[in-house]
Structure formats: C-alpha cells, structure tokens
Amino acid sequence: MKKKNSVASKIILILTMLFFYLPILYIIVFSFNDSRSLTKFSGFSLRWYEKMFADSTMMEAVLYTVIIALIATVVSTVVGTITAIGLSKSRKVVQKMVERINDL
Q: CA dist 57 to 7, 50, 84, Å?
C-alpha cells in the first residue's frame, strides 16, 4: 500500500526549498547589480566580477578552493566505493547498522 502525499507535506516541502534556494538566487541576481545596494537593483553590470578576477589574492583563493574540492571528491568517491563493496559482501545486520548510522 502506497502512502499518499498530503497537501500539507507538499506545502512544507515547497516552503523548505524556498527557504534554502531563494537566498542563493538573491545573491546570484544581486552579484550582477551595478550599485553597492543589496536592496535596490540599479542595472546590470559585470563590475564586481571584473574586480574579483583582477584580484590575484582572490584568484589564488579560488584555485585553492578548486584543488580542495577535487581532492575531497576523489577521497569521497574512493571511500564510498570501498564501503559499498564491503557492505555488499557483509551480513544483513552490519548493512542495517551502517544504513541507520548513515541516516543520522
């Protein structure tokens, strides 16, 4: 028997998604704002991106961020693959225990 999603749960899901994604959208839109104001959009401009790419310290930070992200991705993929292979060959009790820990 399948559970039917109630209207309330759909509303909560939509509100939660708006809560998380609207600030990101707001930042993206206002990063192209010509003025320094965060409340009034005064026109489209790439001025802030030009300043960011011209700053060597900022570009160094971006480079380090990308390197760390790549290392974290490789490590996570290796650890996840090894764990998945190990779990597929283990007993159900161990699988359930790891699944419950993962759900925390």
A: 50, 14, 40
The CA–CA distances, whole Å, from 1 to 4, 5, 28, 64 equal 9, 13, 43, 51
**Phi–psi pair at 33, nearest 5 degrees:** -75, 140
What's the whole-number mean pLDDT along residues 45-69? 94
Task: Give me the phi and psi of 36, to 5 degrees please.
Answer: -85, -10
Q: How far apart are CA 59 and CA 65, in angstroms?
A: 10
Mean per-residue pLDDT over the chain, rounded: 90
Q: Which residue has the higher pLDDT, 89 or 20?
A: 20
**What is the distance, to the nearest Å, from the Cα of residue 23 to the centroid of all Cα atoms in its chain?**
13
